[in-house]
Specification:
alpha+beta; Arc Repressor Mutant, subunit A; elongated; 18 strands; Methyltransferase, Cobalt-precorrin-4 Transmethylase, Domain 2
Length: about 450
């Protein structure tokens, strides 16, 4: 007499719960469902074995994802002169198997515990994904299968590329089992990984000036983050004779490559955000995930590339966002080749940081500027600015650097040079230091 257990399930007749039990066997150690045997082990048989088998196979094929039919053997046998349908299910290789209308979550994923079919825990689901997908996050099946790709599709179209089911399979956004991978999740509107950007007053994380958090497709986050940073990448204008010379605080190439590095190479198996912090003197890009195993900082500086997210990097390469693997850090360093200040990189076991120094930043004591002896601008423009500073100083009694930046709409470095020249010309005197530094008219 048969008895229900971890690998045996008895059903008097076909019921919808058979789908849950079959999925549970495939997610666990396999098992057999006997249709036509009562719970007490007595054989009652089924009136039409062929119809029952057809109903079972259709139900399992339509209701369970990914397709598990290669692990299912459905047949009927004669027991005590009665027809009994047996549904033998092997342990699957693409776990977790889930009910199509419920998705990869506890109410859709079932496992076998003793003689019962029960919902799997979140931890059990993640373990099954890791076991069948290996260590690659991007290749694993996405827990969320209700994904949309409006922004991603538009981005591809803008670059002259199509993004249909066939292309998604080629790009590994759809796996061999027909389900969306985590790579697809990262490029979808439903992506929960974020980029946090913050602008700080001065050089420390004490006073916020602005902040934002970006979500959605990584492609949308990339574009929005670049626009946000560019808003704070000021242009310093100077004149040499009749020629106007403009210089950005940060080389655009360096910002672009640092941002791409933070998004493409981070470890998305962790849920923390990519952090971008903008200070007066620098920008810091911090991404989760240290160096790839076996790599060192020296390797990175030489242009050696070991990709954590091979498929994501390949998509960015096809979209012409990445020109060649391993050149990003080299481009960042090259963009600072004419400057005495250089970018720096820091790495721990779980984080990677790129620091871009502000080319136009200078300490008010002049220790960081290379242009102390250069004329500020044309004589007429300088006179206008000097008059504006004198007028402001008479009105308020004194001025600080921030007053000059806001009143004259100039960069920090330009304000510093102007104040330094006015002090050298005997028009202003300065008192205090650092945050308490103030400038007074020399005759007051």
């Amino acid at each position: 007499m048969l008895i229900e257990g971890k690998t045996v399930e008895l059903k008097r007749e076909y019921v919808e719960d058979i789908k849950k039990t079959a999925a549970a066997f495939a997610n666990s150690d396999g098992g057999t469902i006997y249709i036509g045997i009562d719970d007490d082990g007595s054989v009652c048989g089924v009136p039409d074995a062929d119809a029952t088998m057809l109903r079972v196979t259709n139900a399992l094929r339509d209701a369970i994802r990914p397709d598990m039919m290669m692990f299912v053997d459905c047949r009927y046998t004669n027991m005590n002169g009665k027809a009994v349908v047996t549904v033998s299910v092997q342990r699957g290789t693409a776990r977790p198997y889930y009910l199509r209308d419920k998705g990869i979550r506890p109410e859709g994923v079932y496992v076998r515990q003793s003689a019962s079919t029960v919902p799997a825990s979140d931890a059990a689901i993640l373990n099954m994904i890791r076991e069948t997908s290996g260590d690659s996050y991007e290749a694993a099946r996405s827990i969320n299968q209700q994904l949309t790709f409006e922004y991603c599709s538009a981005f591809f179209k803008k670059r002259g590329l199509a993004l249909g089911p066939r292309q998604m399979r080629t790009l590994h956004m759809i796996g061999e089992d027909g389900t969306f991978t985590n790579l697809a999740f990262l490029l979808s509107e439903q992506c929960t990984h974020t980029v946090k950007l913050a602008v700080f007053e001065g050089s420390k994380k004490t006073v916020f000036k602005d902040r934002t958090e970006l979500s959605g497709s990584l492609l949308e986050q990339l574009e929005s983050a670049f626009i946000y940073i560019d808003r704070y990448n000021r242009t310093r204008s100077e004149f040499q004779g009749l020629d106007r010379l403009d210089s950005r605080d940060y080389p655009v190439v360096a910002v672009r490559e640092a941002l791409l590095n933070a998004i493409v190479h981070r470890d998305y198996s962790f849920s923390g955000s990519t952090l971008i912090s903008i200070f007066d003197d620098r920008i810091e890009f911090v991404s989760i995930g240290g160096l790839v195993k076996g790599m060192s900082l020296d390797d990175i500086m030489l242009g050696v590339s070991a990709l954590r997210n091979q498929n994501l990097a390949n998509i960015f390469y096809r979209l012409r966002l990445i020109e060649a693997y391993g050149t990003g850090i080299l481009k960042i360093n090259e963009s600072y080749s004419g400057s005495s200040i250089k970018p720096s990189i820091e790495a721990t076991g779980n984080a990677f940081k790129i620091i871009l120094p502000n080319l136009n930043y200078a300490e008010e004591d002049g220790s960081k500027t290379e242009e102390a002896g250069r004329p500020l601008t044309s004589s007429s423009k300088k006179e206008e600015r000097v008059e504006a500073v004198v007028s402001l100083c008479r009105k308020n009694g004194f001025v600080v650097r921030k007053d000059i930046e806001q009143t004259l709409h100039v960069s920090q470095a330009t304000a510093i040079l102007l104040l330094r020249e006015m002090v050298a010309d005997g028009l202003l005197t300065k008192k205090g230091a650092a945050k308490t530094l103030r400038y007074y008219l020399a005759d007051l």
